[in-house]
Amino acid sequence: MKLKTLKDLDVHGLTVLLRSDLNSDVVNGRVLKGERIIESGKTIDWLVKKGARVVILAHQGNPGKKDFLSLEMHARLLGRHVKFVDDVVGEKAVKAIKGMKKGDVVLLDNVRGVGDEFKPRKKGNVLLKVLLPLIDIYVNDAFSVSHRDHTSLVGFASHRESGIGLLFEKEIRALEKVRMKNCLFVLGGAKGESDIKLLGRGNKVIACGLFGQVCLAAKGFKFGYQDAFLKKTLLTKGSWAGFLKKLKSKLKRIELPIDFAVNFNGKRREFGLDDFPMEFEIEDIGEESIKRFCRMIEDAESVYVKGPAGWAEDRRFRKGTVEILKAVSRCKGFSLVGGGQLSEVIRKSLFLRRKKFGHVSLSGGACLSYIAGEKLAGLKALGYYTSRGNRK
Ligand code: 3PG
What we know:
α8 packs across α10 (240-248) and α11 (287-299) runs parallel beside α12 (319-330). The protein has helices spanning 35-49, 72-78, 91-98, 126-131, 151-154, 166-177, 192-195, 209-218, 225-234, 240-248, 287-299, 319-330, 340-348, 365-371, 377-381, and strands spanning 15-19, 26-27, 30-31, 53-57, 82-85, 105-108, 137-140, 161-164, 183-187, 205-207, 254-255, 259-264, 267-272, 282-285, 302-306, 335-338, 359-360. The strands form 4 sheets. Strands 5-6-4-1-7-8 form a 6-stranded parallel sheet, sandwiched between helices. The chain has a 6-stranded parallel sheet with strand order 11-10-9-15-16-17, sandwiched between helices. Helices cover 33% and strands 17% of the residues. α5 links the parallel β7 (137-140) and β8 (161-164). It folds into 2 domains: 6-166 and 377-386, 3-Layer(aba) Sandwich (Rossmann fold), CATH 3.40.50.1260; 180-371, 3-Layer(aba) Sandwich (Rossmann fold). It has 15 helices and 17 strands. It binds 3-phosphoglyceric acid. 3-phosphoglyceric acid binds at residues 21, 23, 62, 144-145, 148, 340, 364-365.
């Protein structure tokens, strides 16, 4: 089924429930204004211009994690016209929505603060019970969260006329063009559990970031300090030993780092694998790994890079990520860059030009799931798979 875009929806004078992805980097408790916020703003502006009342649902982080915050700062970063309401399904939220006029925009608080966000099929789901009667149209602009089976992504579409926002449209149109046969996968970032989906598919893989480290751990390598950090950061469910066992069985055709940069009393210092275990935190891949990986990338027929090679927000440890992206921009074949963090690195870098990449996606996990051939819950809810598969 063809997804309805904003142009297909008549929103004038109607209340639109807009699911945006405003999930952003947080540094010292402050939310950074990244591309997700900028791009989401374009859909909001479009709806306002067409005379809609816009109610935004979005999330920041996950319950129990450090970056799980209220969306008050996000509202300010979106612009003065966005009114933040520190409530999602209570009286305050209902009153704010009922009091909206044409062109008003209300951002409700972090939807992941409501337990029913994670129980989309629960009878009497409070998000649906409270918000459905108040809205006329549902728009999903959060492609990057659409792999999640969450109420704000799957619950509303079947009850109201629905469609996709401008950012969602840009993402899905680009991904529909991607051909992944013989593609080199460069898998980094901190969400290693999902990276496993792309192993064992016959594609060549470079593993960097925390994923590169966990692949070495699966082979029995001991890092020292980093071992406990990996376990704490990478696994959200199941047993660590089970995860490593599963990973170990899939490590064919995978290129792993041969050296690392650590935080050596505040300075970058590089060490080869023989120097481990040690009590320093690993923050990047080392020079020798960078050289080796870049050669492979430049020779690739096409390349998909997901997540940073190291701690890219910090100048001292950005090198691996930047050099990999430079190599990707030189790759002759199609290149797809996935994940909010990489697009931020490209945006802030003086050496990387966006037009040198095939497509720079703001999605990490959703993009990866799409490429892995999975059916995304949010797309399914919009009827995307009714008459087609998700890959051509
Ligand atoms: C992201 O940052 O990739 C999206 O906002 C999805 O976040 P999640 O992985 O916490 O669901």
